[in-house]
């Protein structure tokens, strides 16, 4: 295992507060590159969140904790019904509705988690952090993607990116 001295995005947020938009956009691009590589190789991470995004002192992002990751048999975004995963894996505030509802999911659930992670980098907390974990899970499962937007102080492209990630 590689030592990553910079710490996780969550630990940086806890120490210094939310990240400036220019910084979280730079990190988001790198997260997307890493997740694209996983998805091209038929792997779904299933637990993308600030604690699992490490920052090297050079500014390079590394995804960690592949304990929930799963190799898929099919390379499409959603998969066929028989290829879709149904077990609940991940961390509540970052879990997609289809994961919570165990209705079958694939790569799209990682995109949801990326949206939650960008929200976390921008605001210091994941969406629905004001709710208890179980209440947040019930909300996400019942509302199927009706999530809070980024605050108005962020650019329209950043807000649109998060909204698109969290749309079902």
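Q: What amino acid sequence fits the structure above?
A:
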């Amino acid at each position: 295992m590689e030592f990553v001295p910079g710490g996780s995005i969550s630990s940086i947020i806890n120490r210094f507060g939310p990240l400036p938009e220019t910084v979280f956009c730079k990190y988001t691009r790198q997260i997307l590159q890493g997740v694209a590589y996983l998805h091209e190789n038929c792997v779904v991470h299933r637990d993308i969140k600030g604690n699992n995004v490490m920052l090297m002192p050079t500014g390079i992002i590394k995804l960690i904790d592949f304990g929930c990751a799963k190799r898929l048999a099919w390379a499409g975004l959603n998969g066929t019904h028989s290829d879709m995963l149904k077990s609940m894996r991940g961390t509540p505030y970052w879990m997609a509705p289809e994961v919570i509802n165990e209705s079958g999911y694939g790569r799209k659930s990682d995109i949801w988690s990326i949206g939650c992670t960008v929200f976390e980098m921008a605001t210091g907390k994941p969406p629905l952090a004001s709710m208890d974990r179980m209440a947040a899970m019930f909300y996400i499962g019942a509302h199927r993607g009706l999530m809070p937007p980024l605050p108005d102080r962020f650019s329209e492209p950043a807000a649109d990116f998060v909204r698109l990630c969290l749309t079902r």
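Q: And what stands out in the fold?
A: The CA atoms of residues 145 and 167 lie 5 Å apart.
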